[in-house]
Design brief:
By secondary structure, the chain is α+β, with helices and mostly antiparallel strands. Strands 1-10-11-7-6 form a five-stranded mixed beta sheet, with helices on one face. A two-stranded antiparallel ribbon has the order 2-5. It is 25% helix and 19% strand.
């Protein structure tokens, strides 16, 4: 596998050559209505549970239009970091339907004092809101493709980024590919998989800026279990 372009024309041509990768059609390079509904529920849950920041002077980040901070949610869900009640004072906000949601009693945030050592550099996990990959084609020996995400840990206290790169959003492609291959090898061992094909690309539009991540599409040999 390798890095690919997120350009729609390129994705269309790649799909014609492989039969299993994204086809580049705009409405399919986004979650289905079912997964979009899940995304809205999850984001509401994050606002209710995890520490947020808000400025009444910033129209783009206000109780009426909160900019959802995903950082603490991602660290707990991906790396199982210890959590504690936050000192940040919660606020009420409007949900996607314009209904006022009253503030929770408290938010939670990462408990850095209880975190004895930094977590693993990366976390490789299924995308809870996958793009619409081909499922109605003859896949032969292959299972249907999957959409996962490779996440990179970041320590927000010290701006520490566990990468060879000096800039969190400028990780070298060679490093990303090496990290991804390592994660896929672990997955092969865990699931007794013999062969995996994959491609990945950088987000052309970053919707979750809290942690650096790349989109990964992969499939495994259906009959090649060890």
């Amino acid at each position: 596998g390798c890095e690919i372009s997120s350009d729609r024309t390129f994705l269309c041509r790649l799909h014609m050559a492989t039969g299993w990768t994204l086809d580049g059609i705009e409405e399919r390079t986004r979650p289905s209505p079912h997964h979009n509904a899940r995304k809205k529920r999850d984001r509401l849950g994050v606002l209710l549970k995890y520490k947020q920041t808000c400025s009444n002077n910033n129209e783009a980040n206000s109780p009426e239009n909160p900019e959802i901070r995903m950082y603490d949610y991602l660290l707990e869900s991906l790396w199982n970091t210890p959590m504690k009640p936050s000192q940040e004072i919660p606020f009420s906000f409007l949900d996607p339907d314009g209904v006022t949601v009253h503030e929770p009693d408290f938010w939670i945030e990462v408990d850095w004092e209880q975190l004895k050592c930094l977590p693993a550099k990366t976390a490789f996990a299924p995308n809870r809101y996958p793009y619409q990959l081909p499922t109605g084609v003859d896949v032969g020996k292959w299972e249907f493709p999957q959409h996962w995400i490779l996440w990179y840990f970041r320590d927000a206290r010290k701006s520490i980024f566990q990468s060879n790169s000096m800039e969190p959003w400028n990780v070298a492609s060679e490093e990303i590919d090496s990290d991804l291959r390592r994660e896929l090898e672990l997955l092969k061992v865990q699931r007794n998989i013999k062969e995996i094909e994959y491609v990945w690309y950088r987000n052309p539009k970053i919707s979750v800026p809290d942690l650096f991540h790349v989109q990964v599409f992969w499939r495994c040999d259906l009959h090649g279990k060890l």
